[in-house]
Design a protein that fits this description.
Snf7_fam, 18 helices, 438 residues, mainly alpha, Charged multivesicular body protein 7
Length: 438
């Protein structure tokens, strides 16, 4: 709780001490003199109290408002808050908290407006504000505390957990929807008291049936008889309890067996271990037998539901076939009359047809055929023109290529037919022939 209180700004921030002082005072009579301040204090405490419950006890479904709880809000300088009873009364009025005794004795998960003296506080304030009761008619902090003392159910938590239970069992078989109270509490890790609160909520909503012999989670889509704890249900609950007991014994025996194996005693330990093994095998055989019986019971219940579905389908079909509209003679007469009516319609349709309609239709068909042939011919002509155009272009392109080749050849021939030019005179020095002969 101290850690949670330190997370609140008014507690951790020294500059907010005056605000906290106002919150810790007896502000109950401000409802007449300063309604805005009263509402601000009340809403602050509502949020803080519910936040404290979520922080300190997040899993419990109830809490007790008493002197010990008030002391948990002790402040080193301001002492204990003096108007918490007013806050509890307001939470009850809002339906956030439900007085335990009235919840367990009621048949609804919402309390009637006149069921609790705590719910009369708004009326007392109204009379006082109208001057009909005077300021003295409003409870001070001490009086509000005395009226509010007690145990309360936290409605939102029970509602949420009940929804989880219903969702988990929506598609479960019969044997998985039957519990003893102890097994139900173990499954959802609840205390005995919290398990009773949850079961009560489920029963009030019609989602469970409960007796001192066990609990049955109801499938609301099933037959009305499933909303009672039948003899078969009680037998299955007994078998489920026995199976759980056997399983617990097996777990204990296996633990002891493991422990025995870790020791090194001689024959005594061996005899003890042998006895444990024999007992363990017997319990395992018993467990298998019980599981087999439960499986057969579950199968039989499923067979019953199938037969009931067949019977309902048969009864429904019989009821439909008994309708006067489906009488055999009436059906035959209706079909004969329908055939005659259709024949009359065909004769009338032929009689009112226009004379010469067939001729007109034939001429129209011929015109359509001629138009189609003309369009087809035009399309073929366009294709021929396009094809000739492409052929002409290809021919011209070929002629161009041929002409280019001829021009190249002619140029080559002209180059080879040119006359031979004379050899230029030698540049060597002239030698005197006379000198050479000498």
């Amino acid at each position: 709780m101290e850690e949670y209180k330190n997370s609140i700004d008014e507690y951790s921030n020294a500059s907010r001490i005056q605000r906290l002082k106002s919150l810790y005072s007896d502000w109950s009579r401000m409802r007449v003199t300063n309604e805005r301040g009263y509402t601000a204090n009340l809403e602050w405490w509502k949020g803080v109290l519910m936040g404290g419950l979520d922080s300190v006890n997040p899993s419990t479904l109830s809490f007790t408002f008493d002197a010990s709880y008030v002391r948990s809000w002790q402040h080193p300088r301001l002492g204990q808050p003096k108007a918490l009873g007013v806050v509890i009364s307001a939470l009850v009025s809002d339906g956030v908290l439900l007085p335990l005794s009235e919840y367990l004795n009621g048949t609804s998960n919402t309390l009637p407006r006149h069921s609790s003296s705590l719910l009369n506080a708004p009326l007392e304030w109204l009379f006082a504000s109208l001057g009909l009761g005077g300021e003295d008619s409003i409870d001070d902090g001490d009086s509000a505390y005395e009226k509010a003392k007690g145990t309360y159910v936290i409605a939102s938590r029970v509602r949420s957990l009940a929804g989880t239970v219903v969702d988990e069992h929506a598609l479960e078989s019969l044997t998985r929807r039957l519990y003893t109270r102890k097994l139900f509490a173990l499954k959802y890790t609840l205390s005995h008291n919290d398990a009773d609160l949850l079961i009560k909520w489920l029963c009030n909503d019609g989602n469970a049936v409960c007796t001192h012999e066990g609990v049955k989670i109801v499938d609301n889509r099933s037959q009305p008889h499933s909303h009672t704890l039948t003899t078969v249900d009680k037998g299955v609950i007994g078998m489920v309890a026995a199976l759980h007991s056997i399983s617990a014994q097996i777990d204990e025996l296996e633990a002891n067996h493991i422990k025995q194996r870790e020791t090194t005693h001689a024959k005594r330990v061996l005899r003890s271990r042998k006895a444990l093994q024999d007992l363990l095998h017997k319990r395992l055989d018993t467990k298998e037998s019980l599981q087999g019986v439960l499986l057969k019971i579950e199968q039989s219940v499923g067979d019953i539901e199938i037969m009931q579905a067949y019977e309902r389908s048969n009864d429904t079909l019989k009821a439909i076939l008994k309708a006067p509209e489906l009488d055999r003679d009436r059906v035959d007469n209706t079909m004969d009359t329908l055939a005659d009516t259709l024949a009359d319609h065909a004769e009338i349709d032929n009689a009112i047809a226009r004379p010469g309609a067939a001729g007109v239709s034939g001429e129209m068909e011929q015109e359509i055929e001629d138009e189609y042939e003309r369009l087809l011919g035009e399309q073929e002509g366009e294709k021929e023109v396009e094809q000739k155009k492409e052929e002409e272009e290809e021919r011209l392109e070929g002629e161009k290529q041929l002409q280019s080749q001829e021009d190249i050849q002619q140029s080559t021939q002209d180059a080879t037919s040119l006359p031979t030019l004379p050899t230029p005179p030698s540049t060597d020095p002239v030698v005197d022939k006379v000198a050479e002969t000498m």
